[in-house]
Design brief:
The complex is a heterotrimer of chains A (385), B (134) and C (347).
Chain A (H helix, E strand, L loop, with lengths): L3 E8 L10 H16 L8 E5 L3 H5 L4 H9 L6 E4 L5 H14 L6 E7 L6 H9 L14 H16 L3 H4 L1 H10 L13 H6 L2 E3 L2 E2 L9 E9 L9 E10 L14 H14 L8 E3 L5 H10 L8 H6 L16 H5 L3 H17 L12 E8 L4 E9 L2
Parallel strand pairs in A: 2-3, 2-4, 9-10
Antiparallel strand pairs in A: 1-7, 1-8, 4-7, 5-6, 8-11, 10-11
Helix pairs in contact in A: 1-3, 4-14
Chain B lengths: L5 H5 L2 H6 L1 E5 L5 E2 L14 E5 L3 E10 L12 E8 L4 E5 L13 E11 L6 E9 L3
Antiparallel strand pairs in B: 1-2, 1-3, 4-5, 4-7, 5-6, 7-8
Chain C lengths: L6 E9 L3 E4 H8 L9 E4 L6 H16 L8 E5 L10 H9 L6 E5 L5 H14 L5 E9 L14 E9 L7 E13 L2 E2 L8 E2 L5 H20 L8 E4 L5 H10 L3 H4 L5 H4 L6 H10 L7 E5 L4 E11 L2 H5 L6 H4 L4 E2 L2 H7 L6
Parallel strand pairs in C: 2-14, 4-5, 4-6, 11-12
Antiparallel strand pairs in C: 1-7, 1-8, 2-3, 6-7, 8-13, 9-10, 12-13
The chains are: A alpha/beta (385), B mainly beta (134), C alpha/beta (347).
Chain lengths: 385, 134, 347
């Protein structure tokens, strides 16, 4: 297996892009990534598109051919990769494998989601497609509702207070203030979070990732051909799944897929959690941030909030997390989210994170979750020079 | 719901109306819906079983923004229920006000309308759970 | 009509949704100052319809009969509020209780007497040994046009009876039945219309009263029995006034009507009304007591039945919730929630 490096990154701001279509967003991010890598589109050997809901929300499938047409990547092997909200991380894993195998040299992995074209009830319907349509969707539960089941159960099981869990949202907004690509760059208070409307009790609106559009792209290539002063390598890459629905899990507060994928990624990268300098993890709802910290190996079960309360997820803490706003404030353009996370880790390792820079960061981790822990990708990046 | 479909609903009727799950011959655990392998131990020998129609709420949420087809029911409660045999399932609760629901509340299955495929399509029926009546 | 062998009732079950609205609340919305016909009426929840109500009554009846759905050879449902204009209620009930596929199933329509007519057909099938057990369900989720007189009474509910040949441990036996039918357009609903129409005072004397009295008298005559031979009379109950008045005309005192009179608290449950009343009597009657059941269906006709309580009632009664228990859990709706649950709010 060849060593794989990230040669370039590109992205759009996350927001309601009323004036831009799915294809325009994708091309914007992909073009920026190619420019960052110093490559021409004709040099690409393959392209993977991460997306969840183009079929339902846009009535558009066959994104591989559509987007290669609009990008001008004539004849390129291309396809869409879908794993609900983990589409980005999973597509990145496929791109990694493609380059590592030696079959392709330059691979573009781009994620895109265009949500704002649809109305809320259709978006809720689309997101619920991450779970069982024969047995779970007919209950009328929403994706937020499924996470709310986890949230309430977690509080009862570990006797953790909501005001501690909700701090995750305050944290996210704090850092998004310095991220020009973030959907929400305003700071918020815990009081604002807890007094915001309930979406699916106990989850408040300000504990939930917003609906937005965005695209993000990375160019992967063989490490030996990477140029530039700083080189970022894919040190570990893993994907794991769990029983799709919560009702088939023995403990709904533990995401087995996160444990499995992260341990495999740590093993590949030959690192332990304590070696990781910065992480971007999938806090689509505040409770997920807490659970992710635990399942990634940074805290014992039931103790995730301690890290948040004690400042350990801030710059200078034990595990600086979501330093560009996380899913709550950077936003969550579903299929692209995993790639936004990876780009943010690349910025940290390249030393391009500006005010949110973790000084001297060498090892970064990105965790991307699809469904309620049904699919998890963990990618570990390392600065090699 | 994606494209409305009659056969897709029809073929699950037995499992939905009568709460038929599967039970692993090896580890003895039951699950719902019925799978052809055991989701817990990976056992390949499973049998269909009638699951008990009573259980208790182990977690719940109040849906205030509904997906398509459920808009007129809001606010409604969806719960994770543990049946008396330990099998878990997610179900909507009915005949109950959101503020009356609590963890540990005993519930029983009732036959209700789950959703409609529009005004002229079929009506999907199945089980929901209500507070235990006796 | 007397069968050569008597059919026995081996199970019964009734169900009324937990929601209710008081007539004074409806009167408040429409500014009505005249007396209201019932105190309150039952209202279906947003996820209920005739099918779900029928299934609940059928399940309770099976519990009392101590039978599995697969023991049931016939399911007849009488109703005038069908969720599907074409597609039976009875097949869904059969599937939900596990009676499929070797079962006779169909829905009958004769306004509020469809279920008692189905009961007559079932008596024939059971008495002739065609089937061992059969079920009759009366169910309705009646709609009255907002502001119309019917809105004050159009209620909902369901009742199921299981008939069998066996005589040991039966709940009751049915001695005989009669029918009286004419073409009398007192109440109707045209195809495609949501709400029914009625002929106001014409629904009384030439319709309800005449048909019930003629059917009841024919039955008593055939059996050689008098009102004093009966402990209870159960009648179709569109309101409170009519059943008490018709009983009086037949020579039954109020005390024999009241045990089977639920219209004051559930309104008019249409095709379920007389059978729910019968279930209410079953909840309290003793072996050996005799019950006269007379339904009325607009259009118009009445079916009368003479029923004698058996020993099995004592033990079977408590195997499923009694009506008193069912009506204990009630949620009073204001008109706004009533309109929401009944789908009266348009998009």
């Amino acid at each position: 297996m060849r060593r794989v490096a990230i040669l370039g990154v590109g992205l759009t701001e996350v927001k309601e892009h009323w004036d831009k279509s799915l294809r325009k967003l994708f091309v914007e991010a992909a073009t920026a990534a190619l420019k960052d890598a110093g490559l021409d589109v004709n040099q690409l050997d393959a392209m993977y598109v991460a997306n969840m809901s183009s079929g339902y929300l846009q009535g558009q499938e066959h994104l591989g051919s559509l987007l290669s047409t609009w990008l001008g990547a004539k004849g390129i092997p291309a396809c869409k990769i879908e794993a609900a909200c983990a589409s980005g991380g999973v597509a990145f894993h496929q791109a990694f494998l493609a380059v590592a195998s030696g079959l392709y040299d330059y691979v573009l992995v781009g994620g895109v989601e265009k949500m704002s074209d649809a109305i809320t009830s259709d978006i809720l319907t689309a997101l619920m497609m991450a779970d069982d349509q024969d047995y779970i969707a007919p209950t009328g539960v929403t994706f937020v509702g499924l996470n709310a089941l986890v949230y309430r159960y977690y509080m009862a099981k570990y006797r953790v207070r909501q005001e501690d869990i909700a701090l995750m949202a305050v944290h996210d907004h704090e850092y998004a203030a310095n991220n020009p690509y973030a959907q929400f760059r305003n700071r918020i208070t815990l009081d604002q979070v807890l007094s915001s409307p309930l979406v699916a009790d106990p989850i408040h609106l300000l504990e939930s990732s917003p609906i937005g559009d965005g695209a993000a792209a990375l160019i992967l290539g063989p490490l030996e051909r990477s140029k530039g002063e700083v080189v970022v390598e894919v040190a570990g890459s893993s994907v794991a799944t769990d029983n799709l629905s919560l009702q088939l899990r023995e403990d709904i507060t533990t995401m087995y897929a996160t444990i499995k994928a992260s341990r495999e990624a740590y093993r590949m990268a030959k690192v332990e959690p304590k070696d990781v300098d910065v992480i971007e993890m999938h806090d689509a709802f505040t409770i997920l941030g807490v659970i992710n910290l635990e399942d990634l190996g940074f805290a014992e079960k039931g103790k995730g909030v301690e890290l948040i309360k004690e400042g350990e997820i801030e710059i200078g803490g034990k595990v600086p997390s979501n330093l560009f706003g996380g899913l709550k404030a950077r936003g969550h353009p579903v299929g692209a989210t995993g790639l936004y996370q990876l780009i943010e880790v690349v910025w940290q390792l390249r030393g391009e994170a500006g005010k949110n820079q973790v000084e001297g960061a060498e090892i970064g981790l990105a965790q991307n979750v699809g469904g309620v822990g049904s699919t998890v990708s963990v990618n570990i990046l390392r600065r090699v020079k | 719901m994606g494209v409305p479909s009659v056969p897709r609903v029809w073929r699950e009727i037995k499992y939905k109306y009568n709460l038929i799950g599967s039970k692993c011959v090896k580890c003895g655990k039951a699950c719902y819906p019925p799978l052809t392998v055991c989701p817990y131990c990976g056992g390949k020998e499973v049998r269909e079983v009638k699951l008990p129609e009573r259980g208790k709420v182990i977690s719940y949420t109040i849906i205030r923004y509904a997906p398509r087809g459920f808009e007129k029911l809001v606010p409604y409660v969806v719960a994770l229920i543990e049946l008396v045999d330990g099998t878990r399932l997610i179900s909507q609760l009915t005949d109950v006000e959101p503020e009356e629901v609590s963890i540990g509340m005993e519930v029983e299955a009732v036959f209700r309308r789950l959703r409609e495929q529009g005004n002229s399509g079929i009506i999907e029926y199945g089980l929901k759970f209500r507070p235990l009546r006796r | 009509m007397r069968p050569s062998k008597e059919a026995h009732i081996v199970g019964y079950g009734a169900y009324v949704p937990i929601y209710s609205i008081r007539d004074k609340e409806i009167a408040r919305v429409w500014g009505r100052s005249s007396p209201v016909p019932v105190e309150q009426k039952s209202v279906i929840g947003p996820d209920e319809d005739s099918i779900t109500l029928a299934v609940q009554a059928a399940k309770y009846a099976l519990m009392r009969a101590n039978l599995d759905g697969s023991d049931i050879g016939v399911i007849f449902t009488g109703t005038e509020s069908k969720p599907y204009a074409v597609k039976p209620i009875s097949t869904v009930v059969a599937e939900a209780i596990g009676a499929t596929p070797n079962v006779v199933a169909a829905d009958l329509e004769f306004a509020c007497k469809a279920a008692t007519t189905a009961l007559q057909a079932l008596i024939g099938m059971v008495s002739s040994d065609m089937v061992k057990y059969g079920m009759v369900i009366g169910v309705d989720t009646a709609q009255g046009r907002p502001g119309d007189e019917l809105e004050y009474t159009a209620g909902c509910g369901s009742a199921a009876l299981i008939l069998g040949r066996e005589s040991r441990d039966a709940i009751a036996r049915i001695e005989a039945s009669s029918s009286y039918v004419t073409d009398t357009p007192d109440f109707w609903r045209r195809e495609g219309q949501i709400f029914p129409n009625h002929a106001f005072r014409f629904t009384g004397e030439p319709a309800y009263f005449k048909h019930i009295i003629r059917a009841a008298k024919a039955l008593l005559e055939e059996l050689g029995l008098r009102p004093t031979d009966y402990d209870y009379i159960v009648l179709h109950q569109p309101n409170v006034k009519y059943p008490i008045k018709v009983a009086k005309l037949l020579g039954f005192p109020k005390e024999k009507v009241l045990p089977g009179l639920l219209s004051p608290v559930i309104g008019n449950s249409y095709a379920a009304a007389s059978l729910i009343g019968l279930c209410k009597v079953f909840d309290q009657a003793s072996p050996g007591q005799r019950v006269l059941l007379v339904s009325f269906g607009s259009g118009a006709g009445s079916d009368a039945f003479s029923i004698v309580m058996e020993e099995g009632i004592k033990e079977r009664r408590d195997r499923a919730p009694k009506l008193e228990e069912i009506l204990k859990v009630r949620r009073q709706l204001d008109y706004a929630l009533y309109a929401k649950y009944r789908g009266l709010i348009r998009d």
